[in-house]
Specification:
globular; about 70 residues; mainly alpha; 4 helices; about 70% helix
C-alpha cells in the first residue's frame, strides 16, 4: 500500500523533530501507562476515535482500567 503522503520526505526537518521529541518523552521517566493516558487525552482533544480506541487497547495491558 502506498502512503498518501510521504511526510518524512516532504517535511524531513519536521519529521526529525518529531522523532527527537518522541525519544525525549520515551526517556523522560514517565511510566508507559502514564504516557498512554496522555496520548488518550490528546486523541480526545483531537476528536480521533480510532486513535482513542488504539490507545485504550494499548493502556489496558499496562494496568489501566475503564
Amino acid at each position: 500500500m502506498k502512503p498518501r503522503l510521504e511526510y518524512n520526505k516532504v517535511a524531513s526537518g519536521a519529521y526529525e523533530a518529531m522523532l527527537q521529541l518522541q525519544k525525549y518523552v520515551d526517556n523522560s521517566g514517565l511510566e508507559r501507562s502514564q504516557m498512554e493516558l496522555v496520548k488518550m487525552r490528546a486523541s480526545q482533544i483531537n476528536g480521533c476515535v480510532n486513535c482513542l480506541d488504539m490507545r485504550s487497547k494499548d493502556a489496558r495491558p499496562l494496568g489501566e482500567t475503564e
